[in-house]
Amino acid sequence: MNSPLEQLTGELALRPLIISILDWAAVGLLLYLAFQLVRQTRTVWLIRGFLILSGAFFLSNLLGLTTLNFILDKILIGVAVAIPVIFQPELRRFLEQLGRGEIFSLLRPDRSPDFEQTALDQLLEAVRDLSEERIGALIVLEKSPIDERLLQDPGDTMDAVLSKSLLLTIFYPKTRLHDGAVLIRNWRVEAASVILPMSTQIPARQLGTRHRAAMGITEQTDALCVVVSEETGSISLAERGKLQRPLSVEQLAETLHRRYRRAETTSVFQIPALGDWTRKFFPASSSQSGNSE
Ligand SMILES: Nc1ncnc2c1ncn2[C@@H]1O[C@H](COP(=O)(O)OP(=O)(O)OP(=O)(O)O)[C@@H](O)[C@H]1O
């Protein structure tokens, strides 16, 4: 049996190892949260560009290519200075979530493909009904975080599960929230009554401010925007300031599925959400938690 002294020295020897493991686990968690924040947005391409530049910098240093190394060094310094500006919306949201104690919401399983599919189905069903009943609607699907300063009015925060009934209720003409746009963020209804920036382009004559607002927000961000016309019930999809119209619900579904499938397959960091793993081990409970909020 070990003497108390031997036990103590044994524990002391283990301590640095435990601290090291904790240290690396914390770093791993931080990196995971950061990747979750930028997952499937255009920011991953910026990170990839930065990593490629850094790789080229180290390679040029290794090979003694001094002029190239000098230039890459200056570019990397410039990029490092620009990063807080480029990532301003992401950093702001990260700090807000941290301050509100909501940062672990990034670990929630509601960002899974199943959750996205259900939300997309609900959205499409709502658009079908809105179109059939000729209820005007404007729905922004955020990809990269939208800088709120772009919006004329950020509207009323909702942070609610996306459902067909909720969308129909919001856009029903007699409700207080029906005017303006709904903002969908992470497949949840983030806000309603949002006033979007107007496009300066003049759309086809029969299209008014709702369609111009859809063009406006998609000119300035990488969001997609679905419009249902109150006058004709026609469905449009705005992307990069251009309107595709008129679309049937099936055509809209096909386009949105294509966009989101492509976003998934082109994601640079294919890191599954922790929720994906929890779903594997606890299939029933985790799928419920994804939809019950
Ligand atoms: N900047 C904006 N941001 C969000 N919603 C807007 C904005 N401008 C107008 N809208 C919405 O569009 C409605 C007015 O639509 P308007 O008739 O001018 O557009 P439209 O493009 O002709 O669409 P519709 O075919 O539905 O009539 C407003 O009541 C409001 O709900």
TrEMBL record:
Keywords: ATP-binding, Cell inner membrane, Cell membrane, Membrane, Nucleotide-binding, Nucleotidyltransferase, Transferase, Transmembrane, Transmembrane helix. PROSITE patterns: DAC. GO terms for biological process: cAMP biosynthetic process. Residues 88-249 form the DAC domain. GO terms for molecular function: adenylate cyclase activity; ATP binding; diadenylate cyclase activity. Its EC number is 2.7.7.85. It is an enzyme of class 2 (transferase). The chain crosses the membrane at residues 12-33, 45-64. The keyword Transmembrane applies. InterPro entries: C-di-AMP_synthase, CdaA, DisA, DNA_integrity_DisA_N_sf, DNA_integrity_scan_DisA_N. It comes from the Bacteria. The keyword NADP does not apply. It holds the Pfam family DAC. It catalyses: 2 ATP = 3',3'-c-di-AMP + 2 diphosphate. Gene3D superfamilies: DNA integrity scanning protein, DisA, N-terminal domain. NCBIfam families: diadenylate cyclase CdaA. Belongs to the adenylate cyclase family. DacA/CdaA subfamily. HAMAP family: DacA (MF_01499). Catalyzes the condensation of 2 ATP molecules into cyclic di-AMP (c-di-AMP), a second messenger used to regulate differing processes in different bacteria. This is Diadenylate cyclase. It comes from Gloeobacter kilaueensis (strain ATCC BAA-2537 / CCAP 1431/1 / ULC 316 / JS1).
